[in-house]
Write a structure and sequence with these properties.
The protein is an alpha/beta fold. The chain contains 16 helices and eleven strands. Strand 4, helix 4 and strand 5 form a beta-alpha-beta unit.
């Protein structure tokens, strides 16, 4: 079956995309990869802010297709509309009438003056799924504050856990609060779409960066709830498992993930320290947690005699979880990455060489696979065609 004939999970679903930056565009890109038609609305005066968040840019598209913009805007059609004007508002209401889903990430209440808020559009179209993404949510004392990934990481606690124990609080290396909010938004949208298709009843989805950030504190969040004690920064160490860390060897660093006592015994054998596995101070994970620093006094000199390749090979041979730390380039060019389609190439209009490389979607669906139909659009590229029949 040709790719163009392969069914897609969201064939026929139309999304009116009023989002920009990352959380919202990431959510709508996921929907587009699954087959939805994404109508990306952009201000005629420059469009999505991230278009100019470069360099780097796609060659020949400087100031329009930054690498940042391309990360979250494939499988979309760009329509330039000035929503501050009556004509623009009329156009967007017509598009909303044809949509199954509306996604926006304005400040709470910011679309009321345009008649594009959830209450107005959902009243006019009872089956509409309307998703609002914001920094702190539609309610609460912080609802008026703007939402930025860095602020969400700081407010939501993850920065207090990230970084070296004696260093400063650190953000995660990418906009993870935005990305995770976009993923939670996509899950909510798909659940609401299922309900709407079954009952004809749409609904409003209220999702925020900070709510999402708090939800994915995961075990460190429940560690606090169970103990009443704030978790602390441990660098790359694990709060509940030892040794589960990045360790230094003679020519670099290696990741250890010793998950149980049997693995610890095999790990000690490889290092030539079998006595540690029977020492009551280290024989069990609770004991290793209590004596973390003392354990590393024994491990550090033995690890310093190892090499990255030697340590990885030796521990893999005895089934102890271990791994190297790759650069982004090494990761994206690895044989595993190539086998899994982690990097894709798409034809792109107006780009030097005619193609751009993008990160692939990790979903592997056996019946309705994701498809890469449209490269990230130039600003307003689809305006005339899509608005002609309005």
């Amino acid at each position: 079956m040709a790719a163009s004939d392969t069914p897609m999970a969201l064939d026929g679903v139309v999304v009116l995309d009023l989002t920009r930056i990352l959380a919202g565009p990431y959510a709508t890109q996921l929907l587009g990869d699954l087959g939805a038609t994404i109508l990306k609305i952009e201000n005629p005066d420059g469009g999505d802010d991230t278009r100019t968040w470069g360099p780097p840019y796609a060659p020949g598209a400087e100031g329009d297709l930054s690498a940042y913009f391309m990360a979250a805007n494939r499988n979309k059609q760009s329509i330039t509309v000035d929503m501050a004007t009556p004509d623009g508002q009329k156009t967007l209401r017509k598009l909303a009438a044809r949509a199954d889903i509306v996604v926006e990430n304005f400040k709470p209440g910011g679309l009321v003056k345009y008649g594009l808020d959830h209450a107005t559009l959902c009243a006019a179209h009872p089956g509409l799924v309307y998703c609002s993404i914001s920094g702190y949510g539609q309610t609460g004392p912080n609802r008026e504050k703007p939402g930025y990934d860095l602020m969400a990481q700081g407010f939501g606690g993850i920065m207090s856990l990230t970084g070296e124990a004696d260093g400063v609080p650190s953000k995660v290396g990418v906009g993870i609060a935005d990305v995770m909010c976009g993923m939670y938004a996509t899950v909510g949208i798909l659940a609401a779409l299922r309900h709407a298709e079954r009952t004809g009843e749409g609904q409003h989805i209220d999702i925020s960066l900070v709510d999402s950030q708090l939800a994915w504190l995961i075990n460190e969040g429940t560690n606090y709830l169970a103990s009443g004690r704030d978790p602390i920064r441990r660098g790359n160490g694990h709060p509940n498992i030892v040794p589960y860390d990045v360790v230094q060897v003679s020519d670099g660093h290696v990741i250890l993930a010793v998950g149980n006592d049997a693995q610890f015994a095999r790990f000690c054998d490889v290092l030539g320290l079998p006595q540690l596995a029977t020492n009551p101070d280290f024989a069990t994970n609770p004991a290793r947690l209590a004596n973390r620093e003392a354990l590393y006094i024994h491990l550090t000199p033995a690890l310093a005699l190892q090499t990255v390749t030697g340590m990885v090979a030796a521990l893999e041979a005895v089934k102890v979880p271990v791994g190297p730390i790759q650069t982004v380039g090494q990761a994206l060019n690895s044989a595993q990455s190539k086998a899994r389609g982690s990097v894709i190439e798409m034809a792109a209009e107006g780009v030097t060489g005619g193609n751009v490389q993008l990160l692939g979607n990790p979903l592997k669906l056996s019946r309705t696979p994701v498809q890469y139909r449209l490269s990230p659009p130039r600003l307003g590229a689809d305006t005339a065609r899509l608005l002609k029949d309005l």
